[in-house]
Amino acid sequence: MSSSLYYNNVERSAKTVPLLNAIERYSTEQNKYIFTLCSPLGEKEYNYEYSDAFVIASPGHKILFLNYGDDQEAFNEFIEDLIEDLGFISDKFRYKERIGRPKRWREHVVQAISVDLTNIDIPLIFNNSELQDRTHSQTVELIISLLTGSINDIERVGDEVPNHLLDRLKAKIQLFDGDQTRFIYQNLEKKDITIQGLSGTGKTELLLHKLKELYIEDKESKIMFTCHNKILATDLRDRIPEFFNFMKVEEQIKWQERLWCVNAWGSGKDRNSGAYSYIVHHYRIPFQGYGSTSSFELVCETALKHIDETALQEFGFAFDYMLIDESQDFPQVFLDLCIKVSRKNVYIAGDIFQGIFDTNIVSEIKPDYLLSKCYRTDPRTLMFAHAVGMGLFESPKLRWLDDTEWNVCGYQFEKSDSGPTYLLSREPLRRFEDLSAENYESIRMIQFGANQETSLSESVLNILSELIEENPTITPNDIGIIFIENNKSTYHYADQLEQLIPRHFNFEVNKAYESKTKIDNTLFISNRNNVKGLEFPFVIVVASNIQSSRSYRNALYTMISRSFLRTYFLVEQYNNLNTSKFLEAGLQEILENGTMSVVAPSVKEQEDIKTRITYKEENQSYYDFMESVFDEVEVLPIFREGLSKSLEGIIGTKFNFNKAVEIARFNYNEMLGRDE
Amino acid sequence: MKKYSFRIDSRQRDIIFAPIRSKTQSCIVLLECMKLILINEVIEEKYVQGDFDLVIDKMSRVIFRTEGKIFSISFPFSVREENDGRLAFHWKSSAPIGSGVISMLRGFIESQHCIEEIGLDDFYEKASEIEKSESEFWELLKVLIFYEDGYFRYEIDPTRENGNIHPLHHFDLFYRTNNAIKLGLHEELNGDTIIDFMDSSTNCYFLKKS
Fold first, then answer.
1. What is the mean pLDDT of chain A?
2. Which residue of B has its CA nearest to A289?
3. DSSP conformational letter for A172
4. CA distance B186 to chain A (A)
5. Contacts of the segment B84-88: beta carbons below 8 A, 24+ positions apart
């Protein structure tokens, strides 16, 4: 498997392979991002005559021009040409304002070396090219971003390295890693190309880059970009022109002629309103709308049956390319339909581990690209989020992964010799190196509710005061407050905060479960819904009563991992005394050592976990239904099982929410009465 | 007749006293004030920018006051005082109306900008997002759409004062421009007088042409 740290587009020949392999090995050993390139990526028109040279680019080191041939003159020309081209690209993306003309930077950050392929010392080359000066390092990162097409908004990056951590992180130069670069620039010899990764690994961004490549490269092509969710589709449609503009795409966007970005289903009236609606119009198949009898799976199945070879010959392909985001939301038959109606490629991006209890993390069909690095979240926060989600610090554990699955999810581990203890860790990421350098607590756990001073609203107000003090440039956009529970007190607390926050801090508040959207310059408050795709520098997660149910743990995992600077995990003290103790101890280890020592469950325990997951999977909807009833009535965890049994006896397994709440409330009061 | 009084801060004033031109806007005011009553968070004196009274009688009303403006809408739900002194709202014999369903209603109404103009497709799509189990939501949405909000407003408006055409003190009845009726007053009016309008046991007020 290629490393995510390394990317190469230099032709592999008998001559170059040993060298390239050695560089790749060095990159893995040293945990260093390294690119070996024969020309800038994403800028197709640049080609160079001299082929016995390439560029080695790695953050923290000078840009190395490496010559392994004998023609010094041709090598010099290669350097001059490539630097001239870099100057041009830098001008195009307005980097020149920041780094100046090549003559200003090349002296400090470019080094040319000629090597003898039979005797080459890679570590020495890297040691000799190491940069000490922070400004020069930044210049190199910017040049690498130009070389790899990972263009940054130069205004965001700014002129100087900012003083405050929040600003520094926002201004951090973002570079593609090896996996991401391969997805964008490699052309695989197959029709459907899948890319999978944890959420936060940058899939949507990559699809946009891929779209741009396809749109420019294949000027007559028709492209459909689709996803299941309408809000996400609208958001994407708005992002495309901004993105094209930013990437200086000269071609005009011809909406509904060359490019579509809509959700999957659409409506019968307007062929351009959805991928499915376009397809059925194209092949003259009757449109089937949303209704009680038709599922999306079923309507796609029908459409797929209609489109046979004759139909393809008569009407041609509907599109040349299709790009599908959030593919885990779709039935396979929709993907099959897309593959059928596309002339060239279908790019399918989806999440693994979207659900922490997904049993098929390593799917039977291996994805073409697997992204294991999550760039959204500090690795320590992500580890804690996984640990809380899987109950790793609790007994019994709720979820355990096998060794391959740990790897796929981006974990490294050491097993103890003496026992079944796993020492789990994640690789540090460039984006967050400032955080670890400053020993920044990227996750903090706070218990609330013991008395008036530690009430939820007081705790949140205290956190906000602290954040404002620590980060003078903070704006309401930088903070999200997310409630895990969906019950009466949640809405009550949210309403309370909606009143208090503007009064105390002059921050306007947006309750997303009302507005269903993100509003600029407001502080975001939501329950666990309406958070899809969002991230914030600071997230405050509120859990009143930690449950073991799948949906609850899933929500905890996804919400805790939504911050890129710090997550405050607020736990109601009285309801969670035991759990909190274990979580705090686990968190301590993560913050101090960046590791989690976890005892693997015994074979028997693992069996139990599996049975529980499958059992729950089958009974998922009824179980979740009951949980939501109990959430509404605010039933304490210890009573839930008993109450669930008696409720099942009374109402059977019918899903009448109001009725169930009524009966649950009555029974619960009775139970409490007996206990008092 | 029972009266409960509440304070509002500047943000709440801006929401409540935004011009009302449609039923949607009047519903938003109603839901906002219900929410404030449910939270019942004490507002320190320095933040107070107005207040409102919830008056419970045979017919119930809310009367909102800020500097130079008073307006009132009727209150369609029954109000019960709980043991801890908090108020709870009910529609018919249902469970208390909570903050959650108030948010759902508000989200639904606001997402259309104007519920009066919602198209069938949009309505269908919106409606299909709401779970069938939310029968309470549908009941309450019907109340909001169909109840008569009985809006009127009293203003002291020195900037636009124009003799008897636009007197300093005046009433505006109804909010849609094509329904508006204005009534001038010779003197300033206070909130209590408006409450008195509702009281069928006290003497009536009479109109007199100037």
1. 88
2. B125
3. P
4. 38
5. B86/B38, B86/B40, B87/B4, B87/B37, B87/B38, B87/B40, B87/B54
- Nearest CA among A506, A501, A530, A528 for reference residue A517: A530
Contacts of A360 (CB under 8 A, 6+ apart): none
Question: CA Rg, chain A, in Å?
Answer: 27
Could A491 and B41 be called an inter-chain contact, meaning their C-beta atoms sit closer than 8 Å?
A: no
Per-residue confidence band for A675, with pLDDT thresholds at 50, 70 and 90? very low
The DSSP code for B44 is P
Half-sphere exposure of A150 (CA within 13 A, CB side): 21
Share above pLDDT 90 across residues of chain A, in percent, rounded to a whole number: 53
What is the pairing mode between strands B61-66 and B50-56?
A: antiparallel
Closest CA of chain B from A595, distance in Å: 40
What ipTM did this prediction achieve?
0.87
CB contact under 8 A, A513 and B103: yes
pLDDT band at A252 (very low <50, low <70, confident <90, very high): very high
Q: How close does chain B come to A515, measured CA to CA in Å?
A: 6
Question: pLDDT by residue (tens digit) across A52-111?
Answer: 999 999 999 999 999 999 999 999 999 999 999 999 999 999 999 889 999 999 999 999
* Residue B199, CA distances (Å) to A129, A384, B58, B73 in order: 89, 62, 9, 15
Q: Mean of the pLDDT values across residues A494-518?
A: 91
CB atoms within 10 A of CB B68: 11
Q: Which residues pair with A424 in a beta bridge?
A: A413, A596
**Mutation site for B-interface testing, chosen from A228, A295, A489, A499 by largest number of B Cβ within 10 Å:** A499
For residue A290, give the nearest of B9, B35, B128 by CB distance. Answer: B128
What number is the average pLDDT over the span A307-330? Answer: 93
Q: Which two tokens stand for residue A362?
A: 């390593």
Cα-trace Rg, chain B: 18
Residue A507 with chain B: CB contacts under 8 Å = none
| CB contact (8 A) between residue B133 and residue A657 | yes
Where do the DSSP E strands lie in A403-471?
A: 412-415, 421-425, 443-448
pLDDT band for position A1 (cuts 50, 70, 90): very low
User: So what's the pLDDT on residue B152?
Assistant: 93
Contact (CB, 8 A) for A227 and A328: no
User: pLDDT at residue A149 above 70?
Assistant: yes
Name the token pair of A195.
């890319």
Average pLDDT over residues A284-300: 83
pLDDT at position B153, please?
Answer: 93
The answer to whether B41 contacts A500, with C-beta atoms less than 8 Å apart, is yes
- Compute the distance between CA of residue B140 and CA of residue B151 in angstroms, rounded to an integer: 19
Model confidence at B113, in pLDDT bands (50, 70, 90)?
Answer: low
Contacts of B111 in chain A (CB under 8 A): 515-516
DSSP H or E segment with residue B69: strand B69-74
Q: Where are the alpha helices (DSSP H) in A93-200?
A: 96-99, 102-109, 122-128, 134-148, 154-157, 165-171, 178-185
Q: Rounded to whole angstroms, how far apart are CA atoms A496 and B50? A: 19
Are A503 and B131 an interchain contact pair (Cβ–Cβ within 8 Å)? no
User: Are A514 and B103 a contacting pair at CB < 8 A?
Assistant: yes
User: In b/e form, how buried is each residue of A205-219, taking b as 16+ CB within 10 angstroms?
Assistant: bbbbbbbbbbbbeee
**Which has more pLDDT, A603 or A438?**
A603
Tokens, residue A576: 């969670």
Q: Quickly count: other Cβ atoms within 10 Å of residue A355's Cβ.
A: 17
Alpha helix (H) residue ranges in B40-190? 99-111, 120-129, 135-146
Residue A502 corresponds to which tokens in the numbers above? Answer: 């503007």
In this prediction, residues A528-540 reach a mean pLDDT of: 85
> Of A283-292, A430-439, A650-659, B49-58, where does the model show the most confidence?
B49-58
Q: How far apart are CA A170 and CA A535, in angstroms?
A: 13
